Amino acid sequence: MNELIGALPILLHAFVTTLELTFLAALTSLVVGIIAAAMRVSPVPPLRWAVSVYVRFVRNTPLTIVFFITVFGLPQVGINFSFFAFALLALTLYTGTFVAETLRAGIQAIPIGQIEAARATGLTFIQVLRYVVLPQALRSVVPPLASVFIALFKNTSIASAFGVAEAIGTMTNMVNVHSTIVLWVMGATAIIYIAFALLFGRAFAWLERKALIVR
Amino acid sequence: MTGADSHLFDAPGPRAVRRTIIGSGVAAVFAVALIVYVLMELSAKGQLSAAKWSPFLKYDLIKFLLHGLAYTAGAAVVSLGLALVLGIALGVGRLTRTAIIRMPCVAIVELGRGLPVLLSMLFLFLAFPLAFHIDLPAFWTVVLALVLYNGAVIAEIVRAGVLTLPKGQREAAFAIGLTGTQTMRLVLLPQALRIMLPSLISQLVVLIKDSALGFIVGYQELTAQAQSAALLFNNPLQTYVVVGVVYILVNSVLSEASTYLGERQKRTLSQKVVTAGDAVTIESR
Asked: What pLDDT shows up at residue B271?
């Protein structure tokens, strides 16, 4: 028990890394996803093709393989980042595809009248997206985006296999050192994960109510 | 909503077409330049040499990787079957009015959805032997962790499937004197499961991808085999690219199948609405 009390602060500290990775990757993949979704519905065919290739390839690859290719591939072309940055990049590439597909579904669900009205007032394609389509699409996809980001939160655990000392990596190290408190440490880690997952679920439910468009 | 059927823009006129072609040409030049640069860098580091790529033509390595693919498929399919059973039980359990059944189901679903699959896997791998003095075979370590997560996800799909059925279905079943359990088993579940089929196939893609975590607990699936091969031939980048392509091929086929089934179902369902008054047509379908 004393060992567990000693271990807990280290574990909580490791969750800070997990949360950092989650929030940064959520932000970057949101940016990537918005740009990709905009390209996917653009009038320029090559942009649409580029995004559908990106989405098809990365979405159908296990995140582990995306990590492996990032970690082993980029140094070969002269790009050397820290493990944390590589993890951020791999998570962004992977999660970006899910954000893009979710947003595209949201764009498709927008009433045609909205788009027609926007274009009738003389807005250009980019203005239509920026002022009319995307604000509505983003609001309508809050629930599926919540699932994407909660999955991202859990996916950060895979970074532990690539040298990032986030929650799972730290837990595994601790378990290897203090074999007497394996169950306690793993149980504590599990509880913290579930607590955060539930908390994020609540936060997104609140956001959904705030963002809801009553038609 | 891509291409000419989009409401977001008109069919491009001659000027827009010209601009698109010029812009694409410029972008293509940059893209080709980038690819050439990457290839030159890779070549300078010896990453394109025959020694790094030729192992993939050897029968032994192909067999070794196919063994991994078979293990991946095995874990994914068994997990899907078990997750379906667990998912239906939990999904129906969440819909019952008896709190004593509903509460544990809610708890298990939240547990399964909140835990990273990797953590469940490590738990079964490290803590299970300590707690019960049994070493779980690697296959079951992977499968049980996948079943917990995917069972919870499928439970939510089942619940959503049952809840989206028209209210009349349940009312009609009660009206002809079926009990609550009979209504669920004979009327609601069969229809919900049919609506679910596309989601189940896309869940198989998720399972195949997540089974790649098996390499951490020593299950010889595709990624684990790739890791061993990469160590042996000292060609990690090449191996993971090849294995990535295999995953993409398999999962693309499954994703397409899921989309196709989904579209087909949408068509038949909308037909159903049109002919909703005509009971005979619905029956014969």
From this structure: 61
Do residue A168 and residue B248 have CB atoms under 8 angstroms apart? Answer: no
Cα angle B198, B207, A205 (rounded to 5 degrees) comes to 70
pLDDT at res. B268: 77
Residues of chain A short of pLDDT 70, as ranges, are 1, 214-215
CA distance B218 to B223: 10
Alpha helix ranges (H) inside A41-165: 45-59, 63-73, 83-108, 112-120, 125-127, 134-140, 142-155
Cβ contact B131–A197 (<8 Å): no
Indicate yes or no: CB of B213 within 8 angstroms of CB of A133. Answer: no
What tens digit of pLDDT does each residue of B112-134 get?
999 999 999 999 998 888 878 88
Write out the DSSP string of B20-76: HHHHHHHHHHHHHHHHHHHHHHHHHTTTTSHHHHGGGGSHHHHHHHHHHHHHHHHHH
Report the distance separating Cα B117 and Cα B106, nearest Å. Answer: 18
Give the CATH number of domain B65-284: 1.10.3720.10
Closest residue of A to B35, CA-based? A77
Q: Is the model's pLDDT at B280 over the cut of 70?
A: no
User: Over pLDDT 70: what percentage of chain B?
Assistant: 92
The rounded percent of chain A whose pLDDT value lies above 90 is 73
Query: Distance (Å, rounded) from C-alpha A183 to C-alpha B262?
Result: 43
- H or E, element range at B113: helix B99-114
pLDDT-based confidence at B272, cuts 50/70/90? low
Chain center to CA of A167: 17
Task: Yes or no: say if A11 and A192 are a contact pair by the CB < 8 Å rule.
Answer: yes
Closest-CA residue of A relative to B216 is A161
Residue B59 to residue B232: CA distance in whole angstroms: 15
- Kindly tell me if the per-residue pLDDT of B46 is higher than 90: no
CA distances from A176 to A172, B117, B209, B215 (A): 6, 20, 27, 18
Confidence at residue A4, expressed as pLDDT on a 0 to 100 scale:
75
CB atoms within 10 A of CB B35: 10
- Window 97-126 of A: residues touching B by CB (8 A cutoff) are 107-108, 112, 115-116, 119, 125
Q: Which residue of B lies nearest to A62 if distances are taken between CA atoms?
A: B209
Q: Which of B78, B81, B9 is nearest to A107 (CA)?
A: B9
CATH 1.10.3720.10 is held by the domain A16-166: yes
Quote the pLDDT of residue B267.
Answer: 81
